């Protein structure tokens, strides 16, 4: 019987670990605060990453900055480009600065402004409650470049006009923080994930409370019946007698704890090997 119980306990722990792992960043379920929405942004990147290119005249040359972003998976290396001229593997936000003079180009900077570790994007979403619409954003961690830690501050704007799909815009650069805006068409409610109401609904919370209580009830009851009565099979399930004896069990436990604490303080025991005088 014990091997079965141990096996079920291992299964329960495995499910618990998997449940905790759900908290990792998932572009299909981007959680914005405790009371904010949970958006599904996967279709924004269904056709690949988004990018924005900036050109600045820096006579006698032109400086070209290209920023590429994918929240759902790391960027793929381009086969026909030298790997040394691209961001490394496990990069989700890549910033490349080139200098062009005439027909020749030279790569000046390659910055990883957002990365994944073990397949998980190192990002944290946030919500700022304001009127008429809440402000949504995602902070993404990158790597260190030129002794300065790099990151990306991504603002998300909904109901943007003239946006057919996702649109990426450059906002600015403040030391190691790259600021971008991701514009998505329609209202944010169009992107609410299926998990939103399941996660934040009252009945969902009540359901998990009930599951927890029932789990404790069965676990304690099975342990009690096995250790005290040697029960097996269906007899392991707790019955009324168990709950009738709970107050006495609690009283005995409290009495034992109190005696354990008081005896070292008094410097002497009862001399009756744990028995109390009647």
From TrEMBL:
<keyword id="KW-1133">Transmembrane helix</keyword>
<protein>
    <submittedName>
        <fullName>Uncharacterized protein</fullName>
    </submittedName>
</protein>
<keyword id="KW-0812">Transmembrane</keyword>
<dbReference type="GO" id="GO:0034045">
    <property type="term" value="C:phagophore assembly site membrane"/>
</dbReference>
<dbReference type="GO" id="GO:0015031">
    <property type="term" value="P:protein transport"/>
</dbReference>
<keyword id="KW-0813">Transport</keyword>
<dbReference type="GO" id="GO:0012505">
    <property type="term" value="C:endomembrane system"/>
</dbReference>
<feature type="transmembrane region" description="Helical">
    <location>
        <begin position="202"/>
        <end position="224"/>
    </location>
</feature>
<keyword id="KW-0732">Signal</keyword>
<dbReference type="InterPro" id="IPR009011">
    <property type="entry name" value="Man6P_isomerase_rcpt-bd_dom_sf"/>
</dbReference>
<dbReference type="InterPro" id="IPR018939">
    <property type="entry name" value="Autophagy-rel_prot_27"/>
</dbReference>
<keyword id="KW-0472">Membrane</keyword>
<feature type="signal peptide">
    <location>
        <begin position="1"/>
        <end position="24"/>
    </location>
</feature>
<keyword id="KW-0653">Protein transport</keyword>
<dbReference type="Pfam" id="PF09451">
    <property type="entry name" value="ATG27"/>
</dbReference>
